[in-house]
């Protein structure tokens, strides 16, 4: 599985296949926090697994067959991203809101 490296630049972005428009997500990386919001509208909380392994974040979204007006569909997304060196990996959290946005955030190391 490829690892996508993320710059520590505040304008850095992640390639996310479910994102509307161009599939690129803006990453907020300030001196206070790191945060990214990913479109996960096709998935429920039990379909999402976010893990941290050192300075890598592993995101796995999967749902089984669901019937739609066009037939059955299943979806699966698996991405690994490198986290910035100045965040504390132990503080990484994820939250799926009611609009289907998966927000991943982390605190910075105290300077």
Automatic annotation (TrEMBL):
Domain annotation SHSP: ranges: 15-111
Top-level taxon in the UniProt lineage: Eukaryota
UniProt-recorded Gene Ontology molecular function terms: unfolded protein binding
Gene3D superfamilies hit by this protein: 2.60.40.790
PROSITE patterns according to UniProt: SHSP
Entry's Gene Ontology cellular component terms: cytoplasm; nucleus
Pfam families: HSP20
Gene Ontology biological-process annotations: protein refolding; response to heat
Entry similarity comment: Belongs to the small heat shock protein (HSP20) family.
Official protein name in the record: SHSP domain-containing protein
Annotated organism of origin: Caenorhabditis japonica
